[in-house]
Known about the structure:
The complex is a heterodimer.
Chain A: E1 2-5, H1 11-24, E2 28-31, H2 37-46, H3 53-64, E3 71-73, E4 76-79, H4 88-100, E5 107-108, E6 111-113, H5 119-134, H6 138-167, H7 171-184, E7 187-192, H8 195-198, H9 207-213, E8 216-219, H10 226-233, H11 245-259, E9 265-271, H12 275-287, E10 295-300, H13 307-321
Parallel strand pairs in A: 1-2, 1-3, 3-5, 4-6, 7-8, 7-9, 9-10
Helix pairs in contact in A: 1-6, 2-3, 3-4, 5-6, 10-11, 11-12
Chain B: E1 7-8, H1 15-27, H2 39-48, H3 55-69, E2 74-79, H4 89-101, E3 106-111, H5 115-126, H6 132-159, H7 168-181, H8 186-201, E4 212-218, H9 220-224, H10 232-238, E5 241-245, H11 249-255, H12 261-270, H13 272-289, H14 300-312, E6 317-323, H15 327-343, E7 347-352, H16 359-379
Parallel strand pairs in B: 1-2, 2-3, 4-5, 4-6, 6-7
Helix pairs in contact in B: 1-6, 2-3, 6-7, 6-8, 7-8, 12-13, 13-14, 14-15
Amino acid sequence: xxxxxxxGFYFYRYxxxxxxxxxxxxxxxxxxxxxxxxxxxxxSMNVEEELCLPAKxxxxxxxxxxxxxxxxxxxxxxxxxxxxxTCPKIISSSRIARALWRDLPPLYSPAIWFYQGDxxxxxxxxxxxxxxxxxxxxxxxxxxxxxxxxxxxxWRSGQVRKWAAVTGxxxxxxxxxxxxxxxxxxxxxxxxxxxxxxGDPFLSRKIPExxxxxxxxxxxxxxVPEEVLQESGTRWSLPAPVHWISGKELLEMxxxxxxxxxxxxxxxxxxxxxxxxxxxxxxxxxxxxGHLKPFLSLxxxxxxxxxxxWNRVDAFLDIVSG
Amino acid sequence: MVRRMNxxxxxxxxxxxxxxxxxxESLGVPYIPPPPVSARTLERGLGLSRDHFCHPLKVLLGxxxxxxxxxxxxxxxxxSDDYCRYGFYWVVMKEILEDHFRRPLEFFILSHSRxxxxxxxxVTQIGAAITExxxxxxxxxxxxxxYLYNESLRLRNGLWPVEKVKGSAxxxxxxxxxxxxxIRSFEDAVMARKRVRRLFxxxxxxRDTRPLKVLLSGEIYEVLEPSANFYLExxxxxxxVEVMRNxxxxxxVLFNYCYDDETKAEYERLSNHYRLVCExxxxxxxxxxxxxxxxxxxxxxxxxxSLWAAKKYECDGVIHLQPMxxxxxxxxxxxxxxxxxxxxxxxxxxxxxxxxxxxxxxMRLEAFVDLLKSRRERKI
Lengths: 322, 380
């Protein structure tokens, strides 16, 4: 049985978990091809125009799996961390896909609800349900889940290694190495964007690659350990916690990168019509005024021309290195 | 002792007059209502907000800024434990308004998930010395006012397109509103109901025509606040169309309180419309999402189910309004387009943002009404 995974939204954070799990259960995992211009064109023509581009892209990826997969894994991601939600567009995406294209292979959409915490038990229950759905034994499910979590951990520590390389370990060594790392580079920049934007080379507008080419090191949300982010998030006291997971993480990341000495500049990349970005950016822009750190806020859409983005990034880099 | 401060609250149709002002007066709290929503409100709000904010927040910011300029020091806002932006409105408003006025503003938050607790907390914060029974009585009478208000709205919209004397339905509604606002006790409420019904029964109607009927569905602010939808009900009534609201302020109060199965069952028993909406949404959202509370955020569940409800009410079409970029209703709209083809119900969706001119908006609606007319003629 071929299980399709659509390359969009939280696939970019959980693909090691999902693909290893289904692989270990003995199914063939099929990942839709990377985003390209044809997909953007298809999605903008066929999907509700006012949705944000990442949502259109995700739906386009589901459509790409139409003829290839026997089953599409499109979970309903309500809540991925205690006290937070994802967003209405992510939650409803599997329903929209089902309504738009009747001839899709069956969509398997378990509800993921980690709002109250208790990760372990819920994850195991989801694994058992999935195994039952595929006609596998509970023991196989537990084994597959163990392997999947292991591969997720390995992937995650690989992501964080970049942060460790930049910052060094602790104390004095950290200062020293940071200094050395800095000398070799033109600077370190923080890129504030949702994980599904930074993960997708097309959606991130090749900005990380471009900055690297220019001799800068780029740190994304995924590269910084959760503990570091959570610790810095407490510095900005809001009257109520942000209840979207990526909004919360974005503000934490922004707070960390504005306070952290070694970060030379911050780039915010958001998509047109992203609801939660409009709120978190408002807070961020008001809070960053006190910090004398270069900050660039970019809002992009489905246009594919690259030059004006590079123009603005170049101007920003002049400020950073000037 | 009630603390010395002036409270204010945002505009949402007549709910300020019907509900909030009554509660304030009963608690003995001085208040300064914002001026009715106008182009000035929106302009004021636009100066304070980002482009990408949703339309209700832009207007609410204008409301609050104008009220603070008139001397309000405390703001009452509601909050929902929801996936959409509405639950986070007050945090952003606080950030913006305090930055703008350069002084702290006190926010009193009525939480949808804990309505009674948060109301009690506000009462203690304000310093109103009332017993628990008195507070419960205030809320009950407010609910009674709300019910009667929605009933007279329904009566008004039914009579509006068929009235013989232009303006009589709206006049009766104005009279009904005055009666509703004078309700202070349960005895008043019983009397008021009779008087309101008598008022509407006295309107002369044409019996020879059956007006077109449309269901007004979409995001709650756009449906409930007439200035947000360019007084759509009034203009459509002028064209001989009866407008039914998919959402009322009853739903605003009750729907959000359905956080446990017991209240949900009670609500379903009370509201035939809610039951229809859930039934209509089930084939599209699946069992789990259409079972109740918030589905995928905001009033998305209501929007998705509205087409089925419209079919059951024998409506000729559905008008869907959403603030541009609304997180929940944009997703709902993608599904609604498919449902409308499936159920063969004409459907138009309009995004509302900070534009002032109503011509383009109304012209599209007129074209839609023409389509409904010819469709009915073909059928007959």
